[in-house]
Fold this protein.
Amino acid sequence: MSNSINPYQVTHPSDSTSAVDLRLVFDGAIGEDDYRGLLPRNWEWWLCMVLVVLLAICLALFTSVTVVTVLFVRDPLVVMTLIGCCAAMAVAFWLAVRFVNPKVRARRVLKRNPDLLGTARGELNSSGLRFEDGVHQYWFGPAHMLGATITASGIRVGVDPNRDRYLALTDRLFEAYDPEAAHRLHHHWAVLSATPEARQRPGYRALWDQIGAAPAEAIHFRGGVAVMGEERQQRLAANVIIALLLLVPSYLNFSEPWTLWATGILVVYALAMNSKRWRSFVERQSQQVWNCDGWVTSNEVAINNGETGVRMPAKQIEVSQLDDGLMVTTKGGAAYDLARDPLLEPEQWPRLCSSVLGSSE
């Protein structure tokens, strides 16, 4: 029997070969619906869902008990206590339902992070993600893009450790969104990021080489940059949720051993979580040292830490002079401590100071 070729059969080249030439181009504007459509369901969401179920059961039971008590018990203190408990549980139930509601969650986050919405233009390819918002040009390298979540409706790309801050690249933004192609790119990023040697390949920083191409008059720097970032205030809602969870066992029968164990576990959990949250609230400043390279002109600034990079107009930063360097603060709140000695040749320092200090005025 002779072999025959099916002209309708779809052929798939190898991942490593096809991913090099893949491009997923997008151009549009990220809206609230896009952000809401890619909301992650984190542990706080599941914790709140458990709370909703428990409060619903307790609210139904206590409502029934309260109605019976009002009809047959004449003690006003008991009646008022039960009504107060029902009211407290009703408020807690309403808050928990609002917390898990996607629309409310999205609006709460976007109110604090309006920069996550707006112009979205760029592409994904074998070198990562190029993203432009009309002012900044960003590069997210292959190692960073390994944390991206690919779904049938789009790609969620985190921009910093805060899990609520992400780019919602939904399918409607793309010229032709293909989840399978996105997964092939993800596999290619994993190959490129597997070892430090792999990250030195020419294709790893190809997008940044395009975005960060320096003008002839640029002053270049390279070395360790201290990044001072203000910790965002931790959501008080999470503390309230944990505190409400502690109240649930008190509505149950404490004569049962499991309720005592449950309360003890919840108390320990609440203390541990709250101490971590309030410590990060009190200690607002965190410092990281990045091995960065970049350049500065009187009009633009570009900085890259090997995994991500940004090119932006000089008017987007404020510069103040320190004893041993410069403090560069972006409008987004990130602060870069550019130390004098490890970054520049001695003769370049006066040029850098005059350039960036003059452009920030």
Q: What stands out?
A: Residues 33 and 314 are 32 Å apart (CA to CA). Residues 1-17, 229-236, 251-255, 280-286 have pLDDT under 50 and may be disordered. DSSP finds twelve helices and 14 strands in the chain.
